[in-house]
């Protein structure tokens, strides 16, 4: 026995494991005795913020999760929606923030690996990866290290497993200096009649361990993810897991091969808290007991204790409950793929989890109270600070200069340097690659169905007004899917916030969820899966800690019955370029305000969810009937940035007319009013007539054609110049 | 044409290749597991697709080059059989010494996933007969180790005997080995693909199999497959 195990279990040790005195008291009353070291470890990870959602659960319950097309909402490994023809899309987004600061490559890589497992464990072949990344100030020397490692990690893992990385978003802000966000999303496709769940059943059925061997990596990773960073964060490197995408690829193929048989009763990946959470959750959901004998667990290190094995977060492992007579059939499949396969226990009728190791009972915990009596907190909230009101605006640079600065700024510059390191075509189904449309479009193999996929959030709006920001993130995902012609179906959410023990952070969290819920309901866009990441704080040497911007990242999924109807940003010559949606010229919290005046003031733009839906439904219908040939939603940077992006995406230039009268030019061109689309159509007059009938504001911006972007002043910016400015930022930051 | 696609642990573009072949032949190619010791009877074309065989944890392709199926593939090639290796498949063919040279890390030491332009260096082979000599076509590339290298003697031999299949060039066909925009991975002589001495084994880094459908952005890669079908059917 190691020295660790011989330490007496008491309240002090419980506190070191992250349990409060009250939580430890509950452990004592559940157990009716002092828990063993291993039992305390199991309680501490199952009741960590990361696994128990103790600060967030009460609020997550308020989100809408149902729709006629939702097959499985939150509670399974990933959300499942009906995409037609007997097929389902299975998807989820999950964070790997804390590990990615400590060890960016492995943190990001294992983030991708973990979310892939959440999806294929349900029977889906993964068909697309996306991500949402937030980094610190580009001028902070740490930022370059973290961007480099995270991008290499995302690519290193996704490229090797052969799942295309088709989309994502990136923001920079000093609030992420010591706490980057790495949110990874996977989308898979399965037959609706072959979806696998995690609830164990069948007393006596064997419990199978497959995949990589268990080592000492990542012990207490879940607990680490539930605490703030201090200056010793980098010393926590041993708690970061190491990924092996090659084994993951074998695991995907072996599991899908096994899933084509009827051998599986239940299956779950070993994610956070590894063998503990998978066994506890599978048995708990099924209302059965589980006996595990750790002597049979494949191990890659000698002398591991029960505690270490139960808390290890070694990657690429799965737990499977099989039908009793199918063990050898399953073993043959895993042998073929050269993966470890071990029977490590069986289901019981005791309702307890019993862990044996070297003939000793190391843990014996009743499962029902472990789940039911997990702490739930309604932590105090406080209103966040209101942003400064906007000063009266004086445009110091003019429209042309502002455009050049905006399309080159860190938040709007081309991401090609990043996505060119991600294999976006493997699988041969990528219809619109990164940057070609508002959402990535992936065809479902052997069908005409297309999936439209996006990740969205505007953290600066969320900081200024968390409720509005939460709603806006959902609306923008819906809008990006709509702008391809797809029908938005559902979202996965990844709620990244600071410490819930700070009342103003808890206030942001509660408000953001309220806003998200409102938007999801108004747009029939339910939440089917998600993840919460709290304690995203950086502690300074003086003891103060800075929270990240509230970042409720939304992963959206939509469907196209006929993928050929999808449109992207590229416009042909000779089209009328039209703006749909109302323009008020709102510059509060805009990129223009920040980049040109250095201010982060004002309220974010208003969001009228009824108008959002009306405008979006109008646009989608006209894409599907072929009227709209190209489409781009208006987001960060406003209308002029949107038009410039359309010019850069294709061959045609654009000649713009005068802005809306009675409005300052910078407000018209760079205001970030919501619910708007720039579209290319053959006949702008006909579109205007239809728009009036539908109650959608519509105005002509100009015509496509020429070699560059011609501004109302008559000045033309060549496409080459636009591209040069747009593509400068990342290589300059990273390749110096 | 009977095509056989070889699958190693970690191969990940076998499905893309199967789709491309099915598109031109009308039937699904055979998938051959690396532990087999024989190719399906009547195989006309063996394809080693892209991926990360054995994780590429050793040199790319080094492990796969010793897989049981490789003996059968050597035999097949020695008897004049046609073999196409794409990306990891090209790396495996060089490790198996069925093709000369080696593939190093990309010059910029980063994985590159982007479109590139390839120039067809000769069109009197089954792989290139549906192009004209000097034709330029677009194709995706996606690799971390595509930087072609060989000894000076080997390079001279390849050039003297016209065994360079494809080169990285500009859209207008211009070649500049030293320009990372045009020769993205830094390959010697901008070599993207080479032939064996009998012109029946071809290896290339980019992925024409991922550009065979207008829906995915074009059919620029299709002539490779239609040419093979025409050459190998009769």
CATH superfamily of chain B: Class I glutamine amidotransferase (GATase) domain
Counting DSSP E segments of at least 2 residues, the number of strands of chain A comes to 28
How many domains in all of chain A?
4
Would you identify the CATH architecture of chain B?
3-Layer(aba) Sandwich
Beta-strand share of residues of chain A: 15-25%
Report a brief summary of the structure.
Helix content of chain A is 35%, strand content 23%. In chain A, strand 19 and strand 20 form a beta hairpin.
Explain this structure.
The complex is a heterodimer of chains A (736) and B (234). Chain A is α+β, with helices and mostly antiparallel strands and 736 residues long. Chain A has 4 domains: 8-47, no CATH class; 59-195 and 409-565, 60s Ribosomal Protein L30, Chain: A, CATH 3.30.1330.10; 197-358, PurM-like C-terminal domain (Phosphoribosyl-aminoimidazole Synthetase, Chain A, domain 2, Alpha-Beta Complex), CATH 3.90.650.10; 575-735, Alpha-Beta Complex (Phosphoribosyl-aminoimidazole Synthetase, Chain A, domain 2). Chain A has a 7-stranded mixed β-sheet. Chain A has a 7-stranded mixed β-sheet with strand order 23-25-22-26-24-27-28, with helices on both faces. The two termini of chain A are 51 Å apart. Residues 1-5 of chain A have low confidence and may be disordered. With 234 residues, chain B is α/β, with parallel strands linked by helices. Chain B has a single domain (3-233), classed as Rossmann fold, CATH 3.40.50.880. Chain B has helices at 14-25, 69-78, 88-95, 152-160, 222-233, and strands spanning 3-7, 30-33, 45-48, 82-86, 102-104, 112-120, 136-143, 147-149, 164-169, 191-195, 201-204. In chain B, the strands form 2 sheets. A 9-stranded mixed β-sheet of chain B has the order 2-1-3-4-11-10-9-6-7, with helices on both faces. Chain B has a two-stranded antiparallel sheet with strand order 5-8. In chain B, strand 1, helix 1 (14-25) and strand 2 form a beta-alpha-beta unit. In chain B, helix 1 crosses helix 5 (222-233). Chain B is globular, with a radius of gyration of 16 Å. The model of chain B has no long low-confidence stretch (mean pLDDT 97). Classes of the chains: A alpha+beta (736), B alpha/beta (234). The interface between A and B is medium-sized, with 35 and 31 residues.
């Amino acid at each position: 026995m190691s020295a660790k195990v011989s330490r007496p279990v008491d309240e002090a040790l419980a506190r070191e494991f992250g349990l409060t005195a009250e939580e430890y008291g509950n452990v004592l009353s559940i157990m009716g005795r002092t828990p063993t070291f291993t039992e305390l470890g199991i309680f501490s990870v199952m009741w960590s913020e990361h696994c128990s959602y103790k600060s967030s659960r009460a609020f997550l319950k308020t989100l809408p999760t149902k729709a006629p097309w939702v097959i499985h909402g939150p509670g399974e490994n990933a959300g499942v929606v009906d995409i037609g023809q007997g097929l389902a899309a299975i998807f989820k987004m999950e964070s790997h923030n804390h590990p990615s600061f400590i060890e960016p490559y492995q943190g990001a890589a294992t983030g991708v690996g973990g979310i892939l497992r959440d999806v294929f464990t349900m029977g889906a072949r993964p068909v697309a990866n996306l991500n949402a990344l937030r980094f610190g100030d580009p001028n902070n020397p740490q930022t370059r290290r973290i961007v480099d490692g995270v991008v290499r990690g995302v690519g290193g893992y996704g490229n090797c497993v052969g799942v295309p990385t088709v989309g994502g978003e990136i923001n920079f802000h000093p609030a992420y200096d010591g706490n980057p966000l790495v949110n990874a999303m996977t989308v898979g496709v399965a037959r609706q009649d072959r979806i696998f769940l995690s609830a164990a059943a069948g007393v006596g059925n064997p419990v199978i361990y497959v995949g990589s061997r268990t080592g000492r990596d990542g012990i207490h990773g879940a607990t680490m993810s539930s605490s703030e960073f201090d200056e010793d964060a980098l010393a926590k490197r041993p708690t970061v897991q190491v990924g092996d995408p090659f084994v993951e690829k074998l695991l995907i193929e072996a599991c899908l091969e096994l899933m084509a048989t009827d051998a599986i009763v239940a299956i779950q990946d070993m994610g956070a808290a590894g063998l503990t959470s998978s066994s506890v959750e599978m048995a708990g959901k099924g209302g059965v007991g589980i006996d595990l004998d750790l002597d049979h667990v494949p191990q890659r290190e000698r002398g591991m204790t029960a505690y270490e094995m139960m808390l290890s977060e070694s990657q690429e492992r799965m737990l499977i409950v099989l039908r009793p007579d199918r063990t050898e059939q399953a073993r043959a499949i895993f042998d073929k793929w050269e993966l470890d396969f071990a029977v490590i226990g069986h289901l019981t009728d005791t309702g307890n989890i019993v862990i044996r190791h070297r003939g000793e009972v190391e843990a014996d915990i009743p499962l029902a109270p472990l789940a039911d009596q997990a702490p739930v907190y309604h932590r105090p909230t406080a209103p966040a600070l209101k942003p400064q009101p906007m000063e009266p605006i004086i445009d110091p640079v003019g429209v042309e200069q502002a455009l050049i600065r905006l399309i080159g700024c860190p938040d709007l510059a081309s991401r090609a340097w990043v996505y060119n390191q991600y294999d976006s075509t493997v699988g041969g189904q990528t219809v619109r690659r990164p940057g070609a449309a508002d959402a990535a479009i992936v065809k479902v193999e052997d069908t005409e169905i297309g999936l439209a996929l996006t990740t969205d959030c505007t953290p600066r709006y969320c900081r200024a007004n968390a409720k509005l920001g939460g709603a806006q993130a959902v609306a923008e995902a819906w809008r990006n899917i709509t702008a391809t012609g797809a029908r938005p179906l559902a979202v996965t959410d990844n709620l990244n916030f600071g410490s819930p023990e700070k009342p103003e952070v808890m206030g942001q969290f509660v408000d953001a969820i309220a806003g998200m819920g409102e938007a999801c309901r108004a747009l029939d866009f339910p939440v089917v899966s998600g993840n919460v990441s709290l304690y995203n704080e950086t502690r300074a040497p003086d003891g103060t800690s800075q929270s990240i911007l509230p970042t409720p990242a939304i992963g959206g999924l939509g469907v196209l019955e006929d993928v050929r109807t999808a449109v992207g940003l590229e416009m042909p010559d000779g089209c009328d370029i039209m703006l749909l949606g109302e323009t008020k010229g709102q510059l509060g919290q805009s990129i223009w305000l920040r980049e040109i005046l250095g201010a982060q003031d004002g309220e974010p733009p208003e969001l009228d969810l009824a108008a959002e839906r009306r405008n979006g439904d109008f646009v989608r219908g006209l894409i599907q009937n072929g009227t709209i040939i190209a489409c781009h939603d208006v987001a960060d940077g406003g209308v002029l940035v949107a038009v410039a992006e359309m010019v850069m995406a294709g061959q045609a230039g654009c000649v713009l007319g005068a802005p809306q009268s009675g409005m300052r030019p910078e407000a018209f061109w760079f205001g970030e009013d919501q619910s708007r689309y720039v579209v290319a159509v053959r006949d702008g007059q006909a579109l205007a007539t239809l728009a009036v009938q539908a109650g959608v504001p519509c105005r002509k911006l100009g015509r496509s054609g020429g070699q560059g972007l011609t501004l109302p002043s008559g000045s033309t910016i060549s496409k080459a110049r636009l591209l040069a400015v747009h593509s400068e930022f990342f290589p300059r930051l990273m390749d110096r | 044409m009977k095509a056989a696609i070889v699958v190693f642990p970690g191969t990940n573009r076998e499905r893309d290749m199967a789709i491309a072949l099915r598109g031109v032949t009308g039937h699904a190619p055979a998938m051959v597991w690396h532990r087999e010791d024989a190719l399906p009877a009547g195989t006309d074309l063996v394809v080693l697709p892209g991926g990360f065989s054995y994780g590429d944890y050793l040199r790319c392709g080094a492990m796969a080059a010793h897989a049981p199926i490789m003996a059968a593939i050597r035999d097949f090639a020695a008897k004049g059989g046609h073999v196409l290796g794409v990306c990891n498949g090209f790396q495996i063919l060089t490790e198996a010494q069925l093709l000369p040279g080696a593939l190093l890390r990309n010059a910029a030491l980063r994985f590159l996933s982007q479109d590139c332009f390839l120039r067809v260096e000769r069109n009197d082979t089954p792989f290139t007969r549906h192009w004209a000599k000097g034709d330029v076509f677009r194709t995706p590339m996606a690799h971390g180790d595509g930087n072609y290298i060989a000894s000076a003697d080997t390079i001279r031999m390849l050039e003297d005997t016209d065994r360079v299949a494809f080169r990285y060039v500009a859209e207008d066909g211009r070649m500049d080995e030293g320009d990372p925009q045009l020769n993205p991975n830094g390959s010697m002589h901008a070599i993207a693909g080479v032939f064996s001495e009998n012109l029946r084994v071809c290896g290339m880094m980019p992925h024409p199999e991922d550009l065979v459908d207008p829906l995915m952005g074009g059919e620029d890669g299709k002539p490779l497959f239609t040419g093979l079908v025409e050459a190998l059917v009769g």
